[in-house]
Write a structure and sequence with these properties.
heterodimer, A: mainly alpha, 2 domains, 6 strands, B: 317 residues, Rossmann fold, Alpha-Beta Plaits, six-stranded mixed β-sheet, four-stranded antiparallel β-sheet, 9 helices, 13 strands, elongated, disordered C terminus
């Protein structure tokens, strides 16, 4: 036992001193900070986008401008909701739709349920000023004042040399240098790239598509033309499409003698759907955000387990190969038994894996404590939910079990190879197997007690991941106990067999063995 | 302490159809320096690994320090493997201390011992250095020290001299002497005969997995008859007393050399014959000698004599 401890401590001590270990530990918080920092930075740094609107039909310019105004209001609404969530007095993720009783909760809920309707209501009731007045009693006293986002899309005036009345083909030809960025617009004394050209031809109404009409196939472009070299930012064309369609529909309603206001009212009628959980106490059945999160949390754990396992197991492998290629193994084997050596490595490197996870969790804690924002606020609330749930013991058990299982296999692989390159080919199948739980992760979270989830739980190599995946869904007792027994037995078996391979493998030199040789090693009696 | 620290009885090891070690038997008395000699591929390392219970013999039995299995007494054994290697990232003193603790020393004791050894064997300045910064020879010295730091009763060194410069070879010889003085038994394998000649009380010579010699240095010398080299003008054969010699060979001059007037003879004499009697014979017969040379055969000669043909054959194949 002392030997195992000595080896484990050395492995741990040496591992902790490597650069790779610290890179692993520091990378996570760096990514965390990076993601949040850059997100805010990017959101603030998106440049104002100038567009040109040429409406030769004379009918839709108002609708387009309206669309852009609405898009801006939508962003204000969203930012505002975030602001309220962040600064309200009694933020509580356990809140459910049913328990929300204030107007402000109603607003937040509306945004979540039906953004279009909420936006209409928001504009009707007076927009930001009204909402601020409504929200102020519920905000914390020291909360910062709300800064609405600036306008993202701004209309630019047509360059002087371009004739607005020319036909669409000529117009496009004239404007092409601006669209491709060869020439810059001059807006308020500053140059700016033309983001988009919205071109509405004079006879655009002919292009309206009605359900009764047979679709014509022609190569000519009909309808409104949206020219932009940026293909990814679709907010502007989407908003324009919505708004113009809505204005066309309004016109159609009027033509058919239908009152548009009635339509609006009808459109905003909705039936709430209450998500209820039969397993909860009476009166508490409504599903809250925290409940949903609890159901999804295992996915996060599976992922954490995967990353940490990969790291530990890789280290175990390269470390065994180092000892083997350095022939240190021989000195070690003259001092300790192969089993002691194996167990020592297993414990030592397992311990550094746990240290990494602990460091990650700690940095996560520190981060959400020191970096206040809407997202971290939410994260810390979720984190509390997580800590209060019963998932932690599951995670600890399945992490350790998974580690023991895979570490045993990778140690055996390491003992058979003299270089990492040789190990790659033996590792491939194991990597494929390890990827499977990652692929099925989301699927199993959605159907945690379905046949695939149950079958996978009984395959020892998947048990730790799949059972972790299912942990929040109260899997059947037979699954829980049965798979645990199978898992523990497999761990014993794997460690015993890899002990055999390890013992013979570590002294091997030359090429890695063929399958037949490995089987012979397994049969070998000591 | 048992009389013999190590006894092997008809120990064999096969790898498939290849017999690496073939029914080797020998025993090593306590407190001696024992040379384990043999050409490359003779089975030295395999034998050592079996002694240490790293490999299991296919047949035969081994008793080490009175136990049937090295595992039970591994704290009383020190081992330096043939292929040397250390953890590259560890500090020199730490690695010596680590291996000592694996052999049952307490952490504190092991640390003190590491610094003591480093100072005594001229590595004091490198105590805090990392192993990767050492030269190959220095690394090897560190490894030797880490193998013996726990004051083992039985020290097994596999090719300890390979890769060391002459100065460090002497340091290592000193270390081996020191250990023998302290009553430790040292077994080392080598194919450099000078070391064996200088250090060993007894030696074992194996080739192709078989034992070909086991005995003291004097025994080894007795294997090859002592030789007397003579140069004279005529035929020496009729003048010699056949009762004291084993054989006479005429050494024919090499082709390139100028034919000489005198002829060159090699006379193998019997074990207890005084070489002076050969000289007397020549004088009595009135043969004028231009050269009279009498040499002790070196261990090198014995080695070549015993394994030479095999080793060459091996090389050519």
């Amino acid at each position: 036992m002392r030997m195992i401890l000595l080896i484990a401590l050395r492995e741990y001590g040496e591992n902790v001193k490597t650069k790779g270990f610290w890179a692993g530990i520091l990378l996570f918080p760096l990514i965390l900070v990076g993601v949040f920092f850059f997100q805010t930075l990017l959101a603030d740094s998106t440049p104002t986008r100038h567009y040109l609107l040429i409406d030769q039909s004379g009918q839709y310019s108002e609708a387009v401008q309206n669309a852009i105004r609405q898009e801006h209001q939508r962003r204000i609404l969203q930012e505002f909701v975030n602001y309220v969530i962040e600064n309200r007095r009694d933020s509580n993720p356990e809140q459910t739709a049913a328990s929300a009783n204030t107007q402000i909760d109603q607003l937040i809920d509306d945004v979540g349920a039906d953004e279009v309707a909420a936006l209409d209501q928001w504009l009707e009731s007076g927009g930001l000023d009204f909402a601020l007045a409504l929200a102020s009693p519920y905000l914390r006293e020291n909360s910062p004042s709300f800064v609405p986002p600036r306008e993202l899309f701004v209309q630019a005036s047509l360059p002087e040399e371009v004739d607005a009345q020319a036909n669409p083909e000529q117009l496009l030809e004239q404007l092409r240098p601006w669209l491709t960025g060869e020439r810059q617009l001059l807006v308020g004394g500053q140059t700016s790239t033309l983001f988009a050209l919205i071109l509405i031809p004079a006879q655009v109404d002919d292009a309206i598509i009605r359900p009764s009409a047979t679709p014509t196939t022609s190569n000519t472009i009909t309808g409104i033309q949206y020219w932009a070299s940026n293909l990814t930012d679709t907010r502007l064309p989407n908003a324009i499409e919505r708004s113009i369609n809505s204005s066309i529909r309004d016109r159609e309603f009027t033509q058919r003698g239908i009152d548009v206001d009635t339509i609006r009212t009808v459109q905003r009628t909705r039936m709430p759907i209450n998500r209820l959980d039969p397993r909860k106490d009476e009166g508490q059945e409504a599903v809250s955000v925290a409940d949903t999160f609890r159901q999804w949390a295992p996915v996060g754990f599976v992922y954490l387990m995967f990353i940490s396992l990969m790291q530990s197991v890789q280290y175990l492998l390269s470390n065994t190969i180092e000892e083997k290629s350095n022939r240190i193994i021989e000195v070690l084997l003259a001092s300790v038994t192969p089993l002691e050596l194996m167990m020592g490595k297993l414990f030592g490197i397992g311990l550094s894996g746990i240290t990494t996870i602990a460091a990650w969790l700690l940095s996560f804690f520190l981060f959400i404590a020191l970096y206040p924002s809407t997202e971290t606020q939410l994260l810390s609330q979720f984190f509390n939910v997580l800590l209060s749930s019963d998932l932690i013991p599951y995670f600890v058990f399945y992490f350790l079990a998974g580690y023991a299982l895979y570490a045993g296999i990778f140690l055996a692989i390491g003992s058979l190879c003299n270089t990492l390159k040789e190990a790659q080919s033996l590792m491939m199948p194991m990597m494929m197997i390890l990827i499977v739980p990652l692929i099925t992760m989301t699927f199993i979270a959605q159907d945690p007690n379905g046949p695939i989830a149950r079958i996978m739980s009984w395959i020892p190599l998947f048990t730790p991941f799949t059972m972790m995946n299912r942990a929040a869904a109260q899997p059947a007792m037979v699954d829980l106990i049965g798979t645990t027994i199978v898992l523990l037995l497999s761990i014993v078996l794997v460690l015993w067999l890899s002990g055999k391979i390890f013992r013979q493998g570590v002294l091997r030199t030359g090429q890695p063995p063929r399958i037949v040789e490995i089987i012979r090693m397994l049969k070998h009696k000591q | 302490m048992p009389e013999h620290v190590l006894e092997l009885n008809k120990v064999s090891k096969r790898y498939g159809s290849f017999t690496a070690v073939d029914e080797i038997s020998f025993s090593i008395p306590a407190g001696s320096i024992y040379g384990f000699l043999g050409p490359n591929g003779a089975g030295k390392t395999t034998t050592i690994r079996m002694i240490l219970d790293i490999l299991k013999p296919d047949a035969g039995d081994i008793r080490i320090l009175g136990e049937p299995c090295a595992l039970n007494v591994r704290h009383r054994i020190g081992y330096l493997p043939e292929e040397k290697g250390l953890y590259k990232k560890m500090r020199v003193w730490a690695i010596i201390a680590y291996f000592a603790t694996l052999k049952g020393m307490s952490n504190k004791e092991a640390k003190l011992r590491a610094f003591e050894l480093l100072e005594r064997y001229g590595l004091k300045d490198y105590s805090e250095a990392k192993v990767e910064s050492l030269s190959k020879g220095m690394g090897q010295k560190v490894q030797v020290l880490s193998a013996v730091a726990h004051r083992p009763e039985l020290v097994i060194l596999d090719e300890p001299f390979s890769g060391l410069d002459p100065v460090n070879q002497e340091v290592l010889e000193q270390l081996i002497h020191d250990m023998a003085q302290a009553g430790q038994t040292v077994i080392f394998s080598t194919h450099i005969m000078q070391h064996a000649e200088r250090l060993c009380d007894r030696m074992l010579l194996i080739t192709k997995g078989k034992k070909v010699f086991d005995g003291t240095l004097a025994d080894a010398h007795a294997i090859i008859p002592r030789r007397v080299i003579l140069e004279c003008a005529g035929d020496i054969r009729p003048a010699l007393d056949s009762s004291s010699i084993v054989g006479v060979n005429e050494v024919i001059a090499e082709a390139g050399r100028k034919a000489q007037a005198s002829r060159h003879w090699e006379i193998l004499i019997k074990e207890h014959t005084d070489p002076q009697s050969i000289l007397q014979c020549c004088i009595n017969a009135g043969i004028p000698l231009t050269r009279f040379d009498h040499t002790q055969p070196s261990l090198h000669d014995v080695f070549v004599h015993l394994v030479g043909s095999d080793a060459k054959e091996h090389q050519l194949r």
